[in-house]
UniProtKB/TrEMBL annotation:
GO biological process terms, semicolon-separated: negative regulation of canonical NF-kappaB signal transduction
PANTHER family tied to this protein: I-KAPPA-B-LIKE PROTEIN IKBL, NF-KAPPA-B INHIBITOR-LIKE PROTEIN 1
Major place of residence: nucleus
Protein name per Swiss-Prot or TrEMBL: J domain-containing protein
Keyword Nucleus: yes
Basic and acidic residues bias (residue ranges): 30-72
Compartments where located: Nucleus
Annotated region described as Disordered, given as residue ranges: 1-72
A cellular-component GO term for this protein: nucleus
Keywords, in A-Z order: ANK repeat, Nucleus, Phosphoprotein, Repeat
Organism this protein belongs to: Phlebiopsis gigantea (strain 11061_1 CR5-6) (White-rot fungus)
Top-rank taxon: Eukaryota
């Protein structure tokens, strides 16, 4: 069978199949936006004056918050001090319902004990330093009892200057809360102070009848300090 001129002839067969997955042509409505520029945000930037005003407001709020924090801290500290004084005088703290708060009272009593012990330690060390300044500044005669020996109790002889006794004294302040400094610095400064070559001026002022025992005490203290330094190095 044939068709007339002007027509294409197609061989017989099944109708053409639809191709799955083919992207359809865009509609005219979709195409009219292609190639257009993105929208521009025409919102104006804040002026320098506005920026300065905002910064000033932030600083003002921060300053007010810091003042508020400091005020609350002072108030809490004042309450703490008043409770401390109350317990120290023998009073018992109470809770919000007015009942005796024995647990908090016991905790406060322990704090008082620690504070008193720390004060004794610091007073003892300050007195030791003050006595050394007095000895260095004076020109008068000295005796065994005038020397600021580094022990908790007044020593009767050089036998008292064991490494344990000297260590207990020179490191006592490090048990105080908030104490700054290093043990190695304390031992170094003590060795320099008690070096026999550093103390001829002190020994020469000691009474003749006590000079030999004072010199022996200085040598014994220096030896104890050297032992302590060696022990500290081994523990480091």
């Amino acid at each position: 069978m044939s068709y007339g001129i002007g027509y294409f002839a197609f061989p017989p067969g099944p109708p053409p199949q639809r191709l799955e997955g083919r992207v359809p042509f865009a509609s005219t409505e979709n195409l009219k936006h292609l190639g257009s520029e993105p929208a521009i945000n025409h919102e104006t930037r804040p002026s320098d004056e506005e920026v300065r005003a905002r910064l000033k407001e932030q600083q003002r709020r921060a300053a007010e918050e810091e003042k508020r924090r400091q005020r609350l801290e002072r108030e809490r500290h004042e309450v703490y001090l008043s409770e401390l004084a109350w317990v120290r005088s023998g009073g018992i703290l109470r809770d919000a319902q007015g009942r005796r708060d024995r647990a908090r009272t016991a905790k406060m009593q322990e704090e008082i004990r620690l504070q008193d012990e720390e004060k004794r330690i610091m007073d003892r060390w300050d007195a030791y330093e003050a006595r050394w300044r007095a000895v260095s500044a004076s020109n008068g005669d000295l005796s065994w009892g005038d020397i600021p020996w580094p022990t908790l109790d007044p020593p009767a002889s050089s036998d008292h200057f064991t490494p344990e006794a000297v260590s207990e004294f020179i490191f006592a302040t490090f048990r105080v809360r908030g104490m700054n400094g290093l043990r190695k610095d304390r031992i170094r400064s003590s060795i320099l102070r008690w070096h026999p070559d550093k103390l001829p001026g002190v020994v020469s002022r000691v009474l003749d009848e006590e000079r030999h025992i004072v010199q022996d005490g200085i040598n014994t203290v220096f030896g104890a300090l050297k032992q302590i330094q060696d022990q500290e190095k081994q523990m480091a």
